[in-house]
Write a structure and sequence with these properties.
This is Phosphoribosylglycinamide formyltransferase. This protein is of the alpha/beta class and 202 residues long. The chain is built from seven helices and nine strands. Helix content is 39%, strand content 24%. The structure holds 5-O-phosphono-beta-D-ribofuranosylamine.
């Protein structure tokens, strides 16, 4: 299966996928990363792709006259690589109708909280501020909401009294990277069905 991974930052989730595929082999893993896209340049996530010899593209909102035009441009940039599955690994933009029309049902996101708790751009900070005793990460299909699509898998992480946002986020990312690698491989190898809010992986 062909994967396109979308990033906006450090790309450690992307790196986990790259390392797993390098270690296991694309054949056995069931997927290869054919391109990495971002909404901004100069980020470590793009550097990681370049070091791995993987084509990259950047589609910036401000380069387009409207959000819809950006969405169309992003859809085209992704489609050029003919992915079977698109993975948002820290991609910090909400895609629009055209992208979802094309990739809905084949677009997976990872979120650093136990959805439906703490959706949005500050899931780690919000869980900490709320005083949650456990939080974690969620891998889900993207739908037309924000972090509201059908859940594929979740991982639980204890919150410690001494945690600040970055310490907690690092501990969540340790679980998240393993969860994402495991889920993407299973989706790619086994195939899956989405039945309402349920995801059935064969
Ligand atoms: C991940 O925790 C992701 O869930 C969140 O931002 C983080 C991205 O980390 N949206 P990285 O860029 O993969 O290191």
């Amino acid at each position: 299966k062909r994967l396109v991974v979308l990033v906006s930052g450090s790309g450690t989730n992307l790196q986990a996928l790259l390392d797993e595929i390098a270690a296991t082999g694309a054949e056995a893993y069931g997927a290869e990363i054919v391109a990495v896209g971002a909404d901004r340049d100069g980020i470590e996530g793009l550097a990681r792709a370049e070091r791995a010899g993987i084509p990259t593209f950047v589609t910036k909102v401000r380069d387009h006259g409207s959000r819809e035009e950006w969405d169309a441009a992003l859809t085209g940039a992704v489609a050029a690589h003919e992915p079977d599955l698109v993975v948002s690994a820290g991609f910090m933009k909400i895609v629009g109708k055209e992208f979802l029309a094309r990739y809905g049902g084949r677009f997976v996101n990872t979120h650093p909280a136990l959805l439906p708790s703490f959706p949005g751009a500050h899931g780690v900070r919000d869980a900490l501020a709320y005083g949650a005793r456990v939080t974690g990460c969620t891998v889900h299909f993207v739908d037309d909401g924000v972090d509201t699509g059908p859940i594929i898998a979740q991982g639980v992480v204890e919150v410690r009294d001494e945690d600040d946002e970055s310490a907690l986020h690092e501990r969540i990312k340790d679980v998240e990277r393993r969860l994402l690698v495991e889920v993407v491989g299973r989706l790619a190898r086994n195939g899956y069905r989405i039945e309402g809010r349920k995801v059935v992986i064969q």
